[in-house]
Automatic annotation (TrEMBL):
It comes from the Bacteria. InterPro entries: Isochorismatase-like_dom, Isochorismatase-like_hydrls, Isochorismatase-like_sf. GO terms for molecular function: hydrolase activity. This is Cysteine hydrolase. Residues 12-205 form the Isochorismatase-like domain. CDD domains: cysteine_hydrolases (cd00431). Belongs to the isochorismatase family. SUPFAM superfamilies: Isochorismatase-like hydrolases. Keywords: Hydrolase.
Length: 217
């Protein structure tokens, strides 16, 4: 079983999930506890991938103010005026500390049309309309085209979007890595459930060693 699920670190991509101001910053409107605290770990993982020119994708949410593209469980609140990760607002932007150099902001129009927005050398942003990063997106095709078979996950709120995205990746036969200390709202039973479907659960320190050794730079 391990031969099929063990990470191919040299053929991996780093996915950050929903690490946007409205979900991350203290006192933000939809702040997810623990996300701000894991930012230093995310920054370290991103620094390694950037230094090695390895691919990075920042997956984000965008809630249109009329609620038309919002999950049913949140739609009524948005329709009534709650503004969360609204297009063209600072709340929707990536947290400052994880942005690449020369970052100029989200291109909401392109993202909402399903396009990948390039924001650096081997670095992109992708909008996902629901919990999972593969749902109604071209993420799978994008990764297959580039020969990527391993996905490292970090970011915001394990029980919702990261967990859903990891299940989606697994059912598409990608090799999946959960960087557990670079993700918010992680708990022991959740990590056990991930291991049970073949996810490689590891620390930031382990992931850095493995990637640097595999790429050999």
């Amino acid at each position: 079983m391990m031969s099929y699920t063990s990470p191919n670190w040299s053929r991996s991509v780093l996915l950050t999930i929903d690490t946007q101001n409205d979900f991350t910053l203290p006192e933000a409107v939809a702040m997810v506890p623990g996300t701000f605290e894991v930012l230093p770990k995310m920054e370290q993982m991103l620094a390694v991938y950037r230094a090695l020119t390895m691919p990075i994708i920042h997956v984000v949410r965008l809630y249109q103010e009329d609620g038309s593209n919002v999950d049913l469980c949140r739609r009524e609140s948005i329709e009534k005026g709650l503004q969360v990760v609204a297009p063209e607002t600072e709340g929707a932007e990536l947290v400052h500390s994880i942005r690449p150099l020369n970052y100029s902001g989200l291109d909401s129009r392109r993202l909402l049309h399903g396009e990948f927005q390039a924001v650096g050398d081997q670095e992109w942003i992708l909008y996902k309309p629901r919990w999972g990063a593969f749902y109604n997106t071209s993420l799978e095709h994008f990764l297959r085209e580039r020969g990527i078979d391993t996905i490292l996950f970090a970011g915001c709120n394990f029980p919702n979007c990261p967990r859903t995205s990891m299940y989606e990746a697994s059912e598409r036969d990608f090799r999946v890595v959960m960087v557990s200390d670079a993700m918010s709202q992680v708990y022991e039973q959740g990590m056990k459930e991930m291991r049970n479907i073949g996810v490689h659960v590891c620390s930031l320190a382990e992931a850095i060693v493995e990637v640097e050794q595999a790429v050999g730079r």
